[in-house]
Amino acid sequence: MTQLPIDQRGAWRALATHAETMRGVHLRDLFAAATGRHAAYTRHAAGLTLDLSKQRWSDETFALLLDLAREAGLPEASRALLDGERVNVSEDRPALHTALRLPADASLVVEGEDLVPGVHATLDRMATMVERFHAGQWRGATGKAIRNVVNLGVGGSDLGPLMVTHALADYRPEGVHRIEVHFASTMDGSQLADYLSRLNPETTLFVLSSKSFTTIDTLSNARTARDWLMSRLGQEEGVDDGLVMRQHFIGVSASPEKMNDWGIAPDHQLEFWEWVGGRYSLWGGIGLPIALLVGMGNFRELLAGAHAMDRHFREAALADNLPVLLALAGIWNVNFLDIRAHSILPYDGRLEYFAAYLEQLEMESNGKSVTHDGREVGYSTCPVLWGQLGPNAQHAFYQLLHQGTQAVECDFIAPLVRYDDVTDEATRDHLMSQHRLTLANCFAQSRVLMLGDDAIEDDGPRPGHKRYRGNQPSTTVLLERLTPATLGALIALYEHKVFVQATIWEINPFDQWGVELGKKIAGETQRILESHQGLEAMDDSTRALIEAVWQAERA
Ligand code: F6P
């Protein structure tokens, strides 16, 4: 029997009715009505605390949302994901990023094959590579030890390693040959050109990171890098193209054939599997830059933290399950309170790239409008999600959060303790105080967003431009400390949140067909730009834009 769309079933309809009363309720009244709201809506797991008390919901909302999760078949869907069923239906394959963080003594048999030995064989190959770098034994074509590694990749082959290396830079191991890790992703070559102007080709190696190994952005950068190395090193005695290719390139991809065609030495390739989605891939070979920076021990800690969250996701009851609750808060806001903007606000400079990472994770996964069976959805899916470091955003877009016309859900993210390991006492005291200042701002902002004018003592009537409505919902995610393990758990928390929402919205979070048409049309446009032929097929605006380029080039 075919099921009715989710928005026509009982739990959704009950929520829609309930929302009619909740829409007019202010957060300040919810807090005034009940003591112990924090305890009622706060949960802990894997070194993380999730405080959902500042969501605009009540116990009844909470219970109805749990009904919705059950009615959407969430427990069965989660099991199907984690057990390796073909949950990515449009590409007919499993989505098994969680297998990448299973411990070596685990076993996960999928379609007759235990995946764990292969996963750990790749981790062991990564470990051997990292050891060579850290021993100063990975040498360039002229015999000098490699010092700079530039990751060439884009999207999931860039954002994860970029975000994590930035977040965990404090965890560089001591006493090893120091490797600097850089990232170049933009197809226009501007980031790469900057590195090429500064780095020494003799001591620079490029990691070509691309699941498909067909992404034009990455391959364009790779060609430029290869030509730079060849032209700079080609004149050195005893150096030929083969040696440069061998010593200065590592490939990470799901396509060994394409890496071979490009000339990557087979023993300098790290392969991964089609069942790992690009934006879920930092846990294996794509994470090589992370392991090069922080060492394999810390990389394995990152995996262990994510695995702890995977276990929690599998085992915890829905009402205590962090990814489930985070997802349900989002569903409540998007689908029932009409709040379709979501801001990610970390209060720790090390998480500078976390919002950019989540922009891909959430919007490329759930920016969909067609269900598994090809039906147009009749409700909103992924909200517009953006963010940046909270303290800096306070001086940029918080004005809109406080006094604009848009309702926005916010995630505040912060570690409780920082800098207590700084050895110089005076510096430690100053830095710890700066961290407390940061936390004070984090807590104050979520409070003002919640209470509005009620956050300040009544000082008489104020003009409209000094008034604050409040009632903006938020979640606070606290980490005991930002460590490889808690960061792993934090990322896995959001990965599973995305899956829970996709399950309720009945969409596939593991494909991204929406980006394909743009790539195809860009190829056609490039052919016209280069060949000066076929302009007549273009619309009036595109024709004029192309002609402007030709004119400027002639001038
Ligand atoms: O543009 C979409 C996308 O396919 C992402 O999903 C992916 O992370 C990125 O491009 C890079 O793809 P690849 O790793 O195959 O180069």
Structural class: alpha/beta
Overall mean pLDDT stands at 97
Small-molecule components bound: 6-O-phosphono-beta-D-fructofuranose
Number of beta strands: 13
Which strand-content bin applies to the residues?
Answer: 5-15%
What is the overall number of helices?
A: 20
Report, as a whole number of angstroms, the end-to-end distance: 67 Å
Strand order of the largest sheet: 1-2-13-12-10-11
Poorly predicted regions: none
CA radius of gyration is 25 Å
Helicity range:
40-55%
Q: Biggest β-sheet, characterized?
A: 6 strands, mixed
* Overall shape: globular
What features would you describe in this structure?
The chain is α/β, with parallel strands linked by helices and 555 residues long. Helices cover 47% and strands 11% of the residues. The protein has 20 helices and 13 strands. The chain has helices spanning 10-22, 27-33, 37-40, 59-71, 74-83, 116-134, 159-167, 190-198, 216-233, 241-248, 256-262, 288-315, 322-336, 354-366, 390-393, 398-403, 425-451, 484-505, 516-531, 540-554; strands at residues 42-45, 48-51, 109-110, 113-114, 148-152, 180-184, 204-209, 249-253, 269-271, 341-346, 384-387, 409-415, 474-479. The strands form three sheets. The protein has a six-stranded mixed β-sheet, with helices on both faces. The protein has a five-stranded parallel β-sheet with strand order 6-5-7-8-9, with helices on both faces. Helix 1 runs antiparallel to helix 4 and helix 6 (116-134) packs antiparallel against helix 12. It is globular. The termini are far apart. The model has no long low-confidence stretch (mean pLDDT 97). The structure holds 6-O-phosphono-beta-D-fructofuranose. Residues 154-157, 210-212, 215, 218, 278-279, 364, 512, 515 line the site of 6-O-phosphono-beta-D-fructofuranose. Keywords: Cytoplasm, Gluconeogenesis, Glycolysis, Isomerase. The active site is at residues 364, 395, 519. It is found in: Cytoplasm. This is Glucose-6-phosphate isomerase. It comes from Halomonas flagellata.
